[in-house]
Amino acid sequence: MAQKRILRISALVLALVLVAGAIFGGRLLATFQHDYSSTQAASGDRKVLFWYDAMNPQRHYDKPGKATDGMNLVPKYADDAPTPAIAPAKPSERPILYWYDPMHPQYKAAKPGIAPDCGMALVPKYADEQSGGAVVIPADKQKLIGVRTATVARESLTRDVHTTGQITADETRIARIHVKVSGFIDQVYVAYIGQLVNKGEPLFTFYSPDLVSTQEEYLIAKRGEKTLGSSQFAEVVQGSQSLLRSARQRLKLWDISDEQIAKLDSSGQVSRTLTFYSPITGFVTDRKAFPNTSANPDTELYTLADLSTIWVSADVFEYEVPFVKIGQSAEVRLSYYPGKTWKGHISYIYPTLDPSTRTVKVRIELPNPDFQLKPQMFADVRLQVNYGKSIVIPQEAVLDSGIEQTVFVVRDGNSFEPRKIATGAKLDGKVVVISGLKPGETIVTSGNFLIDSESRLKTSTGAMEH
Question: What CATH number does residue 377 fall under?
């Protein structure tokens, strides 16, 4: 019994020794290592900046010990290669505003050191990175990502709109010949379609009983006015004069010219037929006047078209209509007249849209002195849109999100600032800038997508800091 009791006491003592060793042994070992390391550092006269985990060098500590993986921490000496993350800025380098924890940007410090939460080295925040989204890219890195720049300038800008058109007669220069009294065509002087007729040339002679009777009434009124004009009664004189004026006016309303009435006055003889003359110089495009046929006011005897000025009806797509203005110059070419160009101007823009072709008709007026341009011909049309002098930049310089447009402005050799702009017309690889840029500024034209990615990263980091 005594022997068993001794064994139980011995086992209890052994267990107490093991527990005490587990509790105090680690502390003793750490103290030993600390003393040993400090002694080693002191004996070598080398200054220790911090201690780090050899397996995870980004984790730094301010005193020796064991890392979470169980390995001993390794000292980082001052005479080792400098650590750029915590190296203080020299006076000639970029000024530093503060230092922050890269894992928790809201933590800021006035000097370099170790982040308390993650043990990582603090990162500097430079003064030239203070503006929202601005990024600094060294010159060697700019070459690697292919950064190219251009100077903003004000340029004269023009745009060509190419379309097709059809030639038509000038509708304001078309004459339609009618008689205003019923009768019969006696003799015809213009006998075929396409004949060129000069203004004042005879077209046909016309017999009408009403015209003959009106001539007779005119001659009677004229003799009555001569006889009664010397009457001592004013009413008689006025009546004779009124009758003469009425007969003369009726002849003029039936398109009897002053020359024909003067001939009637001088001869005193009624003409059986009267001659009708061309009111314009033009080509006969339609004819219904034939000898010994009846005619009335409803009959269009001739249609004459003056083709010395011609119209071209061109189709312009609806998205190009805003660039077309009345008075704008235009050029017309025909495939069967190679090398020849006719110049004119836009005289009218039609108010309706063709729903099947999504085009708007535009009327171009141009001279045609030699009559080479003929109605119903098809032509190639070039409209030149002049925007005047505008601020213009390459289209590739603009980052367009669909909602807003952004460019990167070079503030100095290595700093790039994002700036929102408003753009206008786009043509020939260029875009008009309405607002946001001034002539003389330098912008990025290539590599801006990579700069934009860096800018967005900086912006998001700045948001985390606040």
Answer: 2.40.30.170
